[in-house]
């Protein structure tokens, strides 16, 4: 079944849901035919699944991993862990939050509310991370410990009790991750530590555990993964010591961690839970195949057995990719980008059937990537419980997660991103309100800190879907997480059913306003529905549209479809406030010739596309289209009038880190700082930054410039109403900024 221009633009979300992203390719004239989908034999989880159309491709995908039979019973079974018993199997993992105040010597409101919200939302155990330099910094060679918590450890109970009290108030337990320093491949610290340095570091961790317990923390985690000092003590390629702490035997390489576990148990009680965060298996992602000296699954299990014998109660596993640290805890980044599953960020692609010892579960778009490893650990360990990192999202993959717990492959889910998007995820899931859970889109804006001001992050971290996270208690949102009721309920008319409009309608209605939402098409979603067709389903954009659409119903918003709003329509509706969210406008500057045709994003599907394509633009939409075209076997070049540093600027820095090297590796040439000229029968003429003129041969040009504002309706309304323009019609950029503007505007009405 083909997708024509008309039904693609008008009902992309419904079509993609019915056909799957692979089927959506049928409407692009000239595409390489795809073989019929097949289902892996003997895979019970794949029952009824839509497997990737190209079954012979690298890392073929099973789209059935999102199945939902509404049986979440295993996720809400209790779980003993040392002296405590978790009320369910959903745990907030110790990942960065960016909520810590830069000044002051008390825990700020954002930090406290942030962690309390997870407990209030139903998580059974909430971990606080230690990756905040203001909290703690350790230099073993100097025997120096500095930071808010370590300057005087006797003050830890007083300093940290407020957060544990907030967590305990909601029948949840509090955990703290102890990390004592990240290193590079420089092994100086590991190999130069004297016995006195080692004893000092061990005593420091033990004493800190004692004080954390006194502060109310019910569990401590030892960070023994990634590039931490404790991890490098266990790896032969980094630990070159020749004494009893060397890496020549399992006993020696695990000695320091085992002694530390034993010391914590002696000081805090044998039933005080100790969790070990460790890598299950490594791969040299920077040089695939060259993995001598990198950790194997068998080695990590042998280490875990030693840790368990020393007293470890539970294990939290990661996939180790030393070259791209972000993928240690967000390995689903290796699946970002259309049909480039396994991308390493170095222009290569991992084969999950062979790399990482073949243990990675790579057919679910990064979801549950380490389930094979957790199952292997559980078969070997005596009684310790096991979890893992890697997008263990029960909102996206309810059956997969529930069945993994029920079948004994894993004991509990360690998650942060899905809970950051919707802290109420556990409660909503248990109450059968799956369709009311805000979805994580795996965009990684939440860890995208730094970069040029033109980037989407602008030096800040935030959530694409939850506009409150990281903005609470700032100048933008001084009221914090609370959504204040309207002082005076008003009649609010929202024009445009994209993410900005739907978020504005949702928030305004929750505050008590009478809200109507108008959309000129027959379905909600706006440009997100178009984006989904080019991105595929990895970012769960279909889920986002479904969630925001459902929120209109839940909050009593009147939705009016198939209605193009004019000034007359507004006049007839008699609103007090009009929120204009009609989307941005597209520009076109080129005219087709006899041999070169010109298409836009809106007309790409259904158009005749030649084998060689030049894309004008290098923003997120252009990059997504480039990936899409590459998957069809097209040869692609891109012309970017801006600097190289701001290619794909609307995406998070981490998505760019994986996608751009993949484009380069597939032969895509991006001409930066180049001026677009005109079309000839040979192709597109451009002027390089050197002044040189060049013609790029092609059969098709895709115009995908940055969108421009579209304020025509707002201008027509003038001052007759209180008018707000939001999203792309005001400041074209990305989904995250559109939702932010919708939220903040609705809060201000």
What does this structure look like?
The longest helix is centred in the N-terminal third of the chain and has 20 residues, at 195-214. The chain has 23 helices and 25 strands. An eight-stranded parallel β-sheet has the order 11-10-9-8-7-4-3-12. Strands 15-14-13-16-25 form a five-stranded parallel β-sheet. Mean pLDDT is 90; it is low at 1-27 and 29-55. The protein is of the alpha/beta class and 749 residues long. Helix 2 (12-23) packs parallel to helix 17 (527-535), helix 9 (255-268) runs parallel beside helix 10 and helix 16 (499-510) runs parallel beside helix 23 (735-748). Helix content is 30%, strand content 15%. It has four domains: 5-65, no CATH class; 73-431, Aldolase class I (TIM Barrel, Alpha-Beta Barrel), CATH 3.20.20; 491-583 and 726-748, Rossmann fold (3-Layer(aba) Sandwich); 597-703, FAD/NAD(P)-binding domain, CATH 3.50.50. The radius of gyration is 27 Å and the shape is globular. Its cofactor is [4Fe-4S] cluster; FMN. InterPro entries: Aldolase_TIM, FAD/NAD-bd_sf, FAD/NAD-binding_dom, NADH:flavin_oxidoreductase, OxRdtase_FMN_N, TAT_signal, TAT_signal_bac_arc.
